[in-house]
């Protein structure tokens, strides 16, 4: 909240001037997603405005302007990555697989035979295990999502692709450690 207050102060904005909010709803750390979505929902309820939710992997893939296969990846811990596969042709970006949590070795076996452009912290960490072709590349190491999220959200708001606060949910790709331990006991 102090970061939000500081930003509004710097921009000379008033919180009541917001028409909508854009938020990444996953994948990511359970605590980070819960905190971020709780703040967003609090603002949504207080202001009565809509929200656009976006997947972090899609937002990262949008940052790659080159044509061909794109694979954003985040470190999911436990020797896994959160990932998905996209294909860009011109301005069109199509998601080819659903986001998932998977080991880098298993994911590599599912990649196309053509070069893939990898990006993100999981791709950086496991690039040697993921690299599927001599011409595959690692484009960037960190996700810097805010600017791209804003551009995506602007388009989604324009098209009316918005949610209300009650419909905003985290996109978890696997159970938390606490849930996994509880399931083992049961």
Task: Please outline the helices and strands.
Layout: H1 2-11, E1 21-26, H2 30-47, E2 51-55, H3 56-62, E3 68-77, E4 80-83, E5 86-89, E6 92-95, E7 100-102, H4 104-108, E8 116-119, H5 121-125, H6 127-130, E9 137-138, H7 146-159, H8 177-185
Parallel strand pairs: 1-2, 3-8, 8-9
Antiparallel strand pairs: 3-4, 3-5, 4-7, 5-6
Give keywords:
186 residues; Nucleotidyltransferase, domain 5; 23% strand
Q: Could you say which structural class the secondary elements and strand pairing correspond to?
A: alpha/beta
* Overall average pLDDT: 93
CATH class term of the largest domain: Alpha Beta
Outline type: globular
CATH architecture of the largest domain: 2-Layer Sandwich
Q: Number of helix segments?
A: 8
- Low-pLDDT sequence parts: none
Number of strands: 9
First-residue to last-residue Cα separation:
38 Å
Which range does the strand content fall in? Answer: 15-25%
Write down the secondary-structure element order.
HEHEHEEEEEHEHHEHH
Helix content: 25-40%
How many whole angstroms does the radius of gyration measure?
18 Å
Domain count: 2
Fourth-level CATH superfamily of the largest domain: ATPase, nucleotide binding domain
Biggest sheet details? 7 strands, mixed
| CATH fold assignment of the largest domain | Nucleotidyltransferase, domain 5
């Amino acid at each position: 909240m102090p970061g939000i207050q500081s930003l509004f102060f710097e921009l000379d904005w008033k919180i009541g001037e917001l028409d909508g909010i854009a938020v990444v709803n996953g994948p990511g750390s359970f605590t980070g997603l819960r905190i971020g979505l709780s703040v967003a929902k609090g603002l949504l309820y207080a202001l009565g405005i809509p929200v656009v939710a976006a997947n972090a992997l899609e937002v990262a893939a949008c940052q790659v302007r080159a044509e061909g296969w794109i694979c954003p990846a985040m470190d999911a811990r436990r020797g896994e990555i959160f990932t998905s596969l996209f294909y860009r042709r011109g301005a069109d970006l199509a998601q080819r697989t659903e986001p998932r949590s998977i080991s880098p070795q298993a994911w590599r076996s599912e990649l196309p035979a053509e070069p893939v452009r990898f990006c993100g912290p999981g791709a950086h960490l496991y690039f040697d295990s993921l690299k599927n072709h001599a011409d595959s590349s690692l484009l960037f190491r960190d996700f810097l999502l805010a600017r791209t999220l804003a551009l995506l959200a602007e388009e989604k708001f324009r098209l009316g692709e918005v949610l209300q606060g009650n419909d905003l949910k985290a996109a978890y790709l696997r159970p938390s450690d606490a849930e996994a331990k509880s399931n083992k006991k049961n």
